[in-house]
Amino acid sequence: MSPATILTVLLIFSSVAYYLGRKRAFAVAGKAGGIRYLHSRPTYYGALTALWCGIPALLLFGLWLALEDKIITNLVVSGLPEAIRTLPENRLNLVVNDIKNLVNGNVVAGAVTATIQEAAVHYRNLKATSNAALAVGVFSLGIVATAVIRSKISSTLRARNLVEQLIEYFLIACSCLAILTTIGIILSVLFEAIRFFKAVPLTDFLFGLEWSPQMAIRADQVGSSGAFGAIPVLSGTLMISAIAMLVAVPIGLMSAIYLAEYANRRFRDIAKPLLEILAGIPTVVYGFFAAITVAPFVRRLGFTLGLDVSSESALAAGLVMGIMIIPFVSSLSDDVINAVPQALRDGAYSLGATRSETIKQVVLPAALPGIVGSILLAVSRAIGETMIVVMAAGLAANLTLNPFKTVTTVTVQIVTLLIGDQEFDSPKTLAAFALGLLLFVVTLLLNVIALHVVRRYREQYE
Amino acid sequence: MNKDDSKANKKVEKRTIDIVHQGLAKRYRAEGRFKFYGLAAIVMSLLCLAILFISIVGNGYKAFRQTYVELEVFFDPAILDHENLSAANYSGLVKSTLRKMFPEVKGRSEKRELYKLVSPGAAFQLRKMVLKDPEIIGRSISVWVPADDDVDMLIKGYFSTDAAENARRLSDKQLAWIEQLREQGKVKKKFNTTFFTAGDSREPELAGIWGAAVGSFFALLVTLLLSFPIGVAAAVYLEEFAPKNRWTDLIEVNINNLAAVPSIVFGLLGLAVFLNFFGFPRSAPLVGGMVLSLMTLPIIIIASRAALQSVPPSIREGALGVGASKMQMVVHHVLPLALPGMLTGTIIGMARALGETAPLLMIGMVAFIVDIPRGFTDPATVLPVQIYLWADSPERAFVERTSAAIMVLLAFLMLMNAAAIVLRKKFEKRW
User: Which of A120, A281, B130, B333 has a 20 to 30 Å separation from A441 between CA atoms?
Assistant: First the structure.
């Protein structure tokens, strides 16, 4: 029986259990003098029985599948001849892989010897036994649990409370997933980063001025010793983000002001969704746009002005990223400006201020914390943006302030280091996780500050 | 003295109003300028949007048509061995047909140039025809086969023929042959069905988006199945059941932060946890969907909570008042009313997931995959990643196809967002 069939059968068992439980409840109620003497409605008894049938069996199923492979592999390995068992670990792994491939009918890398053939048969037998045992275990557990709970059904059993309690546990588990995700991110990035910092000292990483992650695979290779100074990568990230913000902040802020203060309803209803389309376009599309349209345009423009512009200039990537971020700035600032109480504006008008004076001297100062928060969120978005820079910015880690030159960013380096085959013992691969840690910490700080500022601001006027 | 005083008074009065009047024109001009800046900002961003769309459509609209060449193929029994039809030399068949069409072509290099006019896919097409109907062996049939991508680009007018011969992808001789074929009416542009039915290929004229679309579908299905129930459950707990304490505060802050974590970090999580720790297969839509669902969860939770908040408390009180338990109140009364809002949020989250690229690069969905995936664990790629892969290809024809694939992706996104808007408009209730 394959695991999928076991699950399906278990599902059928649960539904049967539901009806058994419900029937039992009716029977009990009949004895007690009608349904009204039951503590809960009969469906709750059914649901309780179904849950009792399903949940322990499912737990067993999951546990079994998680451990099955390891146990069978160990059994097979212990059955191998002495000569193979005492091989070094990585060679042994190859043999085990061969056996597994043989079992699954895949192409086998090494030669198929009689021992391996034998081991494969052994493996297959064990697997079949294990599957059969799993099926028996799961089903009998389901049946036993059903029988136990069925015998407990009485008119005083608080079935509804029990079922609702179980559902609430499920709800709690779901909401804790957010915390689990955060912990998962931190742990996964942190572990590999710590391994990286064992090979490359933290100070070298944070303050080094050279980034060239190519490592020599063999000791006698020339020229690629690997340098992991993050400063050029960081400066590139900051430069592209700064260009993006130079585009996005003025345009986004002015759009928000116009939409909130000047535009009539009809204009607002049309322009706002159109602006938000900009936020909905996938970043890979922006990347393509930057690489195919904007970068050649910037290059030609620079050429006519007599400037030497690289074809993967920071300027092109930054400009397009700025366009992408406009709606983030504008919609958040729009909300913030709308939240400023009308009384403040009315006061300014009554003193004879024009609209723009009111905006500049009353509304904006009042909305400033919120606007700063929205800009910080936009900065964090710009720093973490990946596809635009992967497609339009370069790989060369130049430490420069010239926006016409190629620079690289943290995200570009993570992508290039991790695409393709990875060896998880080389600092080159681990460096990506160190950069990821850096990225996560920086954006997290920005987000926390921004969310805090925005929250405080909202509370001020509520 | 008195006179002087009144004069001074008059002067002061006049000066106040004067100052106001003097400054007024300037202030109105400033007002006009400020208003203009605001309008200009909006116009500018909409202009950027327009340029983006024009550039994509302008680059890509021609990809929906593909150049085909008509070949008069004689299915030569000498080449097509009846014993082993699937392994016969079909490219030889294409070559002999071309040689017959241009008998004047002699010499190895010239012949090789001639063969380059039609796509390598022509041989597969003939093979398919023969396998479908072996009766055609021995007969002569005219077949439209896809032209090579360079020919396609020439017919679509992307190459200027003025350049020096060695600076062009097509030689003078090839140009003459194409011209000859055109005069005979043997070159035609037809609707490009390959683009919608094929998987990826190194040859632009054989490459299609179907494989990527199927991969996207599987990944999104996993995302939906995971993130919708979990997201709704989490929102219900936080909104209806959770006590206000430090723990729930922590969860809230966490969710808000996760919504702003760079997507690539989720890719790192997927690589380290799903692939390396749990040993899930690389390049699989299953893992892609799991990573995407972690990303869409915060979006769905935030939208669902907003939907729950918009259900008025009187509904809850009414249900509790007639003796429903808290869970019954939520499941029977609050959830049905909040569901449209939750679905809207889910669709928007799905649209985001459909356009997401970076985290999928981390878990190996960038592999070159020709086959159409058939399950959740088959190696696959998704639409945005396919766009990224094609954008990296040097052939001119791939620029066109990348833009076309973007158009397809954007069409899907618009469809999803339109569905969300319709849903919202239809079920929006003001209490």
Answer: A281
Domain that holds residue B347: 210-427
How many contiguous H segments (helices) and E segments (strands) does chain B have?
A: 17, 3
Residue ending a domain, among B150, B178, B199, is B199
CATH number at residue B360: 1.10.3720.10
Neighbours of A333 (CB within 10 A): 28
In a mutational test of the A interface, the residue from B19, B27, B45 whose CB has the highest number of chain A CBs within 10 Å is B45
What are A348-369's pLDDT values in tens digits? Answer: 999 999 999 999 999 999 998 8
Residues B304 and B405 both lie in one domain: yes
* CATH superfamily, with its number, for domain A227-461: MetI-like (1.10.3720.10)
CA distance B387 to chain A (A): 7
Over the stretch B328-338, which tens digit does the pLDDT of each residue have? 999 999 999 99
Are residue B192 and residue B279 in the same domain, yes or no?
A: no
Query: Are B264 and B182 found together in one domain?
Result: no
pLDDT tens-digit series, residues A262-307: 999 999 989 988 998 898 899 999 999 999 999 999 999 988 988 8
Residue numbers in B near A288 (CB within 8 A):
56, 387, 391, 402-403, 406
Q: What is the pLDDT of residue B1?
A: 45
> Following DSSP, what letter does each residue of A178-218 receive, concatenated?
HHHHHHHHHHHHHHHHHHHHHHS-HHHHHH-S-EE----SS
Give contacts of A448 with chain B, Cβ < 8 Å: 253, 257
The last residue of a domain, from among B170, B199, B228: B199
Helix (H) or strand (E) segment spanning residue B144: strand B140-146
Count the neighbouring beta carbons within 10 Å of the beta carbon of residue A355. 16
Tell me: do B279 and B330 sit in the same domain: yes
Query: Regarding predicted confidence, which is higher, B219 or A311?
Result: B219
Q: Which of B63, B403, B408 is nearest to B213 (CA)?
A: B408
Q: Kindly identify which residue of chain A lies nearest to residue B387, measuring between CA atoms.
A: A284
